[in-house]
Amino acid sequence: MAAAGQGMLLLVALCLFASVASVDRNNFKTCEQSSFCRRLRSLEPQTSEFEVLPQSLQQFKQYITLTLVHQRTRHEYVLKLACLKGAGSFHMQVDEREPLSVRYRVQEALVQEPQYASTKVESTSGTLIMVACGEAPDVKAAIQVAPFKVDFFQQGRLVVTANGKGMMRFEHLRRKPEPKTEQQLQEEAAADRGEQKEDGGEQQAEPAAPADDDPGAWEENFKSHHDSKPKGPEGLALDFTFPQAKVLFGVPEHADSFALRHTATKGTDPYRLYNLDVFEYELNNGMALYGSVPVVYGHGETATAGVFWLNAAETWVDVFSANRDTDVVSSLVNLVSWNSQTEPPAANFISESGIMDVFVLLGPGPIDAFRQYTELTGKGPLPQLYAIAYHQCRWNYNDERDVEMVSAKFDEYDIPMDTMWLDIEYTDGKRYFTWDHHKFPHPVEMIRNLTGLGRHLTIIIDPHIKRDGGYFFHNECTDKGLYVKNKDGGDYEGWCWPGSASYVDFFNPDARRHYADQYLLTNFREQADTVGIWNDMNEPSVFNGPEVTMLKDNLHHGGLEHRDVHNLYGHMQLVATFDGLLRRGEGRLRPFILTRSHFAGSQRYAAVWTGDNMAEWGHLQASIKMCLSLAVAGISFCGADVGGFFGNPDGELFSRWYQTGAFQPFFRSHAHIDTKRREPWLFPEDVRLVIRDAIRKRYRLLPFWYTAFYEHERRGLPIMRPLLAHYPADVNAFAIDHQYLLGDQLLVAPVLDQKQQRSRDVYFPVRADGQGDWWYDWDTQQKHTGTGVEAIPVDSYKVPVFQRGGTIIPTKERIRRASTLMRHDPYTLTVALDREGRAKGTLYIDDEESYEYRHGHYLYLEFEFRDGVLSSRKIDTTASYKTDTWLERVVIAGLGKQPTAATLYTDASGAASGRLHLERDGDVVTVRKPGVSMRDAWSIRLDF
Q1: Which listed residue (256, 418, 564, 612) is catalytic?
Q2: Active site includes 491?
Q3: 879-893 tens-digit pLDDT
Q4: DSSP H or E run through 122
Q5: CA 414, CA 420: separation in Å to the nearest integer?
Q6: 325 among known catalytic residues
Q7: Second label for 102, Cα 20 to 30 Å away, from 396, 419, 490, 674?
């Protein structure tokens, strides 16, 4: 295509995309407009039409199988049920016994094939089959024969029921019926009148499939787009009830409350899981956004359970809330009053295609359920330290001089910053793996200058490839057949930022490998192995496609239809990008990738941000709700565009957003190309100083963050956690999503409302024993011993953050321009004592960039304060790392009496190494300069 033609296409695409002031809901389907959702959705409980054939039971060592039959169509399905090894969970699959073609099963989301344990049939009768797990005898499943349902038990409690509401649907693959002849129509009319055949018998019609009369079953139109549906209707649905639960949460990504709202009402759409590029998304609804993780949890005072619905097709999730007449979102002042008389909550999953592939996670507690999920989908790997520091981005920094100036200004104003980002304008005409050499004539030198300051660069690379005969990568993808195909087998063309574009088929192993190869320094020479990658627009975004995405009847490698794998497309780009960066660094450096689109398991490859938000207080509040939902779905490395992507925040909103972002796992400021420049120094001094203070708080806590990320890789638990994770019996905490925990150490309650200028209501939760923990103000060490709501005074600098009594948190107090320059700086330990005068904490140390830690080159330390003694020991005694860091200071809060002296012990024989200097301020004691190496075992004894 000629350059002028390309320019015209781009102009039309950009006008189409930019003309909308906010999200146009007409561009996206409702359930009623999505034929399979309309057809399969049920709003009321019913008697299931599926039954088990008990005589079909087959027992294997690690699983059982049964035949399910639909009572009306008599079509048969195979049920497979297995206990997962070591997890206290079940894996349940349902597929057609003899499908016309093989139905797609998701493989790429799991970290490995499910590992099964002994699965035993305890008893069987004509009505019930009891199944037990050999490794966990208190984990059982009861299969009811007719109507079919499965009850799952944990420790004698019924915690999940599948098909308890009878909403199971499974449209079997079949050939499109021929148009009926006039004689057939007359015979059907006679049957309806109850007329007799000539032989005296009643007219018997063939059992009809429910979809046959739906006009959208065999082909479907939305606006100007046509979906040919070559396989016809193939949808499925299954409901799950949580008898012990009061609240459901999960199924990200939605800009909605953490606790899921009741949707099973006519006129209200279910939560939708369908990865879409949504421009200026709305708040407080279940509209589909950029990512989809089909896991839901049910939580009550006595049990937590989860359901992971492994399906990558378009999916809708109806929620039957336990409090459908009550807004489940707590205001902290008017806490939720849970009605114990209502029906237990339930979720109904409705997917367009695939099979029923379900993992039932039986807890019994929230932490157990979260771990069970990440055992399946993987744990986020430890990032380089710089990746969890502060990032500066906008669309776009203009040229090399602009990048240099912004970096220098951070130094001028003494504001730490680790990474500069470049959006799409750095490329040569939106051709990825190239540079605009007019704006960026010396990219390698620019990168080298940043790294010389201890900083990094991240650049954007999207999956759409400009269709340009002069573009090497387009020609290679065309010649090698590496693009997604349309239904007729030709390369699919759509519009995105370059104009006419095609899309790499990441389901093709050859395409993934070739795409990954482009990141190698031998191919993309004008970069460095330190450069991070930003995969955006990977839902995939197609400006002129249905719902701004790809046609469902497009084809991937091996004839795989896009409708089956839509929600996996971005995930597969991450697989390729990660491979390329890993090989670029020769297996030594940990890759850094940020993605917009995501699916279950994406945490193994990339961080996630919440997309195109707005400079509004509501979007600031939504950043917490969205990242909490992602965290419990395995994706801990989450953040939002600080300040809002669209719009121009005022100083108060901007500074409060920095204060919030500083206490979220991914911390990046980013803005749209049409917004005013908003680097911190462009605001008045009072705003700039507040922003500087917030960023410096982040850098002070980097040892805590780095340890949290390591422990996330090790144990799979969320870094950012809802209160119910550690206070599961406190019903008032269930729905709170305006404050949260970091690990079990910090309670974070940032100022999220313009009205909260002088005080911020904070809820201090209640433990199972009815008491509250002690909480220490992170800035002042003031102790809070009560429970419930407390108004905390705030000013423009104040971020209400509290350290839990019984914990020890490591920090570094010497803030430098970048985290990479703090590697050898000394540590401070803040010891917050509990009611018993005790505390524990951990610290992780390594080289902060390589994979050497996986070969034993690290220190993982535990600190404990007990009976007046603070001690350090290695958790992993065989691991070692030669660090130059040392202990500079110890702050102890909550001592009941004042010590008179402190003595350091470092000799294995127990000999004293010297007296230490003490400073006292109320019940806070500071031990100055112990000077001991973090490599050594040591203890500090307080004398009273």
Answers
A1: 612
A2: no
A3: 999 999 999 999 999
A4: strand 119-124
A5: 16
A6: no
A7: 490
